[in-house]
Design goal:
Spore Coat Polysaccharide Biosynthesis Protein SpsA, Chain A, 38% helix, 2 domains, alpha/beta, 266 residues
Length: 266
């Protein structure tokens, strides 16, 4: 025998289990909230492990290909003066690792293309399933162009972004949110916190990317891409000098950068 039909869902409830439909709905909603809260936690605070693709990243994130140029340790960050006892090369490498770790926690590894000549960085990327493209060694824009060439030749059409490799404060949810905003424009860019540089450049087609990184890159990219002044300091704080390092430390850096800076004496 069956009981009365629920006025909401019209389903009949067996007489031995007359649980109001409102109670069932509330219970299901509560468990879903718990599940999503646990998943979101992997994208917050400490950078998630590179083997965890963030469930909070929307479905379109899976379509993005992200190119990250990373300079060799010995030639990187010449304007940066680390604390005593911290080698500049080690700090530069840590900045890159924190950027890559955050990106790998959001973008599928086979869609991460790192352009570098640094073997330690290359090993890290390959170990996580990412792709390494050799840096031609004649500047940032040629390195980015090499990454774009790879995407066009191997991965084909699809949304493509260029992300700077010196963002130690970057969190997966910031990158996911920025790419979701970029998705709404054929070409877009996110300036750095000063407003003059560029931290993220995007296009819905790799062939339409026009990288013009360097002095006043925001002004140059603004000629062909939509400017997105997002309220995301963790995404927009690239570390080039002592002042931007202080800003990054105030926001909170990833574990690789924190570990290197802990080498400094008391």
């Amino acid at each position: 025998m069956h009981g009365k039909a629920c006025v909401r869902c019209k389903a009949r409830v067996p007489c031995k289990a007359r649980v109001p439909c409102s109670t069932i709905i509330h219970t299901v909603a509560t468990w879903l909230a718990v599940i999503f809260a646990a998943a979101t936690g992997r994208c917050r605070g400490e950078h998630a492990g590179a083997d965890t693709i963030s469930p909070m990243c929307s479905l379109e994130i899976n379509h993005w290909r992200v190119i990250i140029p990373v300079k060799g340790q010995l030639s990187a960050k010449t304007r940066l003066h680390p604390p005593a006892g911290v080698p500049r090369a080690d700090l530069a490498h840590a900045l890159a690792l924190d950027t890559l770790t955050a990106a790998l926690s959001c973008v599928t590894p086979d869609h991460l293309i790192v352009v570098t000549s640094d073997e330690l960085t290359a090993t890290f990327v390959r170990d996580q399933g990412g792709t390494v493209v050799a840096d031609p060694g004649n500047g940032l824009n040629p390195a980015v162009a090499r990454g774009i060439e790879y995407v066009q030749r191997v991965l084909g059409p699809g949304p493509t972004a260029v992300l700077l490799g010196d963002l130690p404060t970057l969190r997966p949810e910031d990158l996911a949110g920025a790419l979701s905003q970029c998705w709404m424009h054929p070409r877009a860019f996110v300036p750095d916190w000063s407003g003059a540089g560029t931290v993220l450049l995007s296009s819905l087609s790799p062939r339409d990317l026009q990288p013009r990184f360097g002095a006043h890159s925001a002004r140059e990219h603004g000629r062909t891409h939509v400017r997105l002044d997002l309220d995301m300091p963790a995404l927009r704080t690239d570390v080039d000098d002592d002042e931007t390092l202080r800003q990054a430390l105030a926001i909170g850096v990833g574990r690789h950068t924190a570990a290197v800076l802990h080498q400094a004496p008391g």
